[in-house]
Amino acid sequence: MHRIISNQAFYIFITALLILVVYLLAPILSPFLLGALLAYLTDPLVKRLEKYGVPHLASVVIIFGLLILAILLMILMLTPLIQQQINEFIAALPQIMNWVETTLMPIARQLVYTGSFKATLSSSLPKAGWIFDTVIKSGFTLVEWAVNIVLTPIVTFYLLRDWDLVRQNIKETLPKQIRPTIVTLAAECDEVLGAFFRGQLLVMLSLCFIYGIGLTLIGLQVGLIIGIVGGLLSIVPYLGSFFVVITASIAALVQYGDWHAVLWVLAVFAVGQTIESYFLTPYLVGERIGLHPVAVIFSVMAGGTLFDFFGVLVALPAAALIKVLFRFIRHQYHF
């Protein structure tokens, strides 16, 4: 009995230690976790090629090459369109400046002349040191992004090549008495994660198309860029929707100068949300996660508080795994 308690305490200690290490190393984990995610998503394609007699390494090279090629083709296809949108935006700058001077500045002046706002503004003016510190941090952020862009494909390739070996090594490190339980639980988690990530990716790409085409059809000059960015941001719950509504509405006001254009923006958003809510998400993602909307909001806020932006990205799959874990424990111990 004493030995069982000691073993349980040891496993709890190791788990807590691993969680602490992950928390401390969170700032540098992004390329490794993103590489692991890409390897996880593309490993079934490697397995499918192997079923047709293609050697493992050749399958990995083919799938990895197709992944890189797809990303490059997407960039090449979107670059001219985005460049055209940027040129249209630059051409519209005089109109934007006129809108700022005639519409925005009077509102700003009225706010500045308000005593409470003036006091708040004077107490929160940035110091030169704060500006310098922000510039330095921005420089480090750019370097970090560059390093992540280089590291992510390298990590993806090696993990994809050794994915089965990694899984086998993890399995062998598990104590024999709990190995069957962990393997069963891991299979359930794999089913949930696979459904979530692959479905969410299709939803995200579909929203890029819907928002981009819809905003372009109503004549919004930067509609394609807003639609693509909004679709990509939809991987974070509510962020993509918020971005599309706010930025597209402001762009419509600047371009057309009346609220009727904003109504067209809201119509495009309503169509996109309807398609996502009633068709894309139910059929592509399904009800495998089954999180209540309040649980979704709490998960996103908790993830952002603990791990900043990366925590927001992984909040929903982490919450889904926690739900699977609690369901497994309840079924295992009948409570």
Question: What would you say this structure looks like, in words?
Answer:
With 335 residues, the chain is mostly helical. The protein has twelve helices and no strands. It folds into two domains: 30-96 and 128-173, no CATH class; 178-335. Helix 10 (239-256) runs antiparallel to helix 11 (260-285). The longest helix has 41 residues, at 293-333.
How would you summarize the topology of this molecule?
Elements lengths: L1 H23 L5 H22 L4 H36 L1 H20 L2 H9 L4 H34 L1 H11 L5 H39 L5 H11 L5 H18 L3 H26 L7 H41 L2
Helix pairs in contact: 2-3, 2-6, 3-6, 8-9, 8-11, 8-12, 9-10, 10-11
Please, how many helices?
12
Strand segment tally:
0
Number of domains: 2
Low-pLDDT stretches are: none
Mean pLDDT: 78
Pfam families: AI-2E_transport
Family: Belongs to the autoinducer-2 exporter (AI-2E) (TC 2.A.86) family.
Transmembrane segments: 12-41, 53-78, 201-229, 235-254, 261-281, 293-326
Protein name: Putative PurR-regulated permease PerM
List its salient traits:
mainly alpha; 2 domains; membrane; 335 residues
Brief overview, please?
The chain crosses the membrane at residues 12-41, 53-78, 201-229, 235-254, 261-281, 293-326. By secondary structure, the chain is mainly α. The protein has twelve helices and no strands.
